[in-house]
Please model this.
Amino acid sequence: MYAQMIKSESTDDDPEKLAAFQARIDANEKIEPKDWMPQGYRKTLIRQIGQHAHSEIVGQLPEGNWITRAPTLERKAILLAKVQDEAGHGLYLYCAAETLGVTRDELTEMLNDGRMKYSSIFNYPTLTWADMGAVGWLVDGAAIMNQVPLQRTSFGPYSRAMIRVCKEESFHQRQGYDIMMRMAEGTPAQKRMAQDALNRFWQPALMMFGPSDKDSVHSAQSMAWKIKMNTNDELRQKFVDQTVPQAEYLGLTVPDDNLRWNEDTGHYEFSEPDWSEFFDVIQGNGPCNTDRLEARNAAWNDGAWVRDGMHAHAQKKQQTKVAAQ
Amino acid sequence: MSADAPFFEWLCRLGDNTLVLGHRVSEWCGRGPALEEDIALANISLDLIGQTQMWLTLAGEVENAGRSADDLAMLRDAWDFRNALLVEQPNGDFGRTMMRQFLFDHFHLLQLQTLADSADQRVADIAAKAVKEVTYHVERSTEVVIALGDGTEESHSRMQAALDWAWPYVGELFASDAIDVQIAERGIAPLPDTLRVAYDQRVTSALTKATLTVPEGRFAHSGGKSGFRHSEHLGHMLTQMQWLQRAYPGAQW
Model:
């Protein structure tokens, strides 16, 4: 997911306060920034929301890779609008994280020096125009699976950010699928691009939900706090069940020999993705980790003089205003 | 060529300016100095590409040879582009990008404002739509140029360098040629050189607030809007922008 493998922080707060806090959560009350909250809840949320925000920001890069090569003016405009939305999502999410007592600059520095992560999916390259379709269809499709339930998350600012994000994400997924449809019904070369994109993105998309979390105590704590609403396996199954018929409609083949419909369970059976690859990517060895982090660091470092200049100008204006009063 | 070649050519000048600048700005995607700047740059690029669709669609209609806006954008070679040299210049640092934007935006707004009275209703309609967007572009690029010109020593010197770099490309925006004369005679648009006084006032006022020095030189490069001699940069931009359409002719995307 956009936030993967978030470990819940342990908490050693006053048991009475903790019980009262849990009672509020169980009653579906929203926790607001000024309310008392356990330290573990705060820290876990900072990590989760921060990682989610970072994913939106880094996620601009694989799509930005094709904005300058978009095949038509309309496709270029749609892709620009989508990437602009993603930067906007990053902004809402950083604002939500800031209410927990961390600044956007601190979060950015932690992303840039590798202390914080972003979703593994953005460490894969976008190699053909069909990848713009696959990213919208599969990656945004997987993100929606997670974000729709997060609209009901216990932390008020996060929940409200998710409500805004979800409205735009469904448009993103539709535009991705629309690209795939056009490619799938296009020339032989376009069909080949579409199938190739599905082949490359299928497993990484499944990995977005993170490894099976049935044994994880951290996950149980996050679920009790309602900052994680479903298990990874539940969401992954839901994603497969939704996506396989869409692939069939496109006339594309899901790259999994073990994929079959199970009448009894009412779900598809499918192969686990290669988790060793997932851990390689998480540890920095994905195909694009180095490029993505270099691009973000370059943007941040090259932009330092701009941020400093803007800040200095704002201060001068403030001083002039004070002097005039 | 159609009977109305001058009008077609003139519309390409408008559409190619917005296309080429919109493309350049889109190259910043995900690489801006702050998240707010990423959003603003994408927004400006989006506006310019939208305006391109309107101008080049109209150009195709006027040409009456069955070419769509996409055909014009993706299948002409550099010598058929009619954008000013300023907008095809590479992005450089954020200072250059914003200075190029500022110098173009002020021209663009004045141009669109006069087109509201165009004798051609289609031109007036497009201009009326675009003018709202470009009003915002002017506000934003002017604010940024003032802030960075006035900001720190480094930001000031970078902005002065950006101004010195971009200034020789300003004159071409206002140079009036035979096509402009024909268009003016038909009441479609005034001659561009009539906009220069207002432009200088607006630009100089902002640059003064930015504590920047307007270069004294009036030398102006030319060759973009006539298509006679573009810079070397345009061809490289087109190889990227047009690649898919060129590599897979006839495919629908």
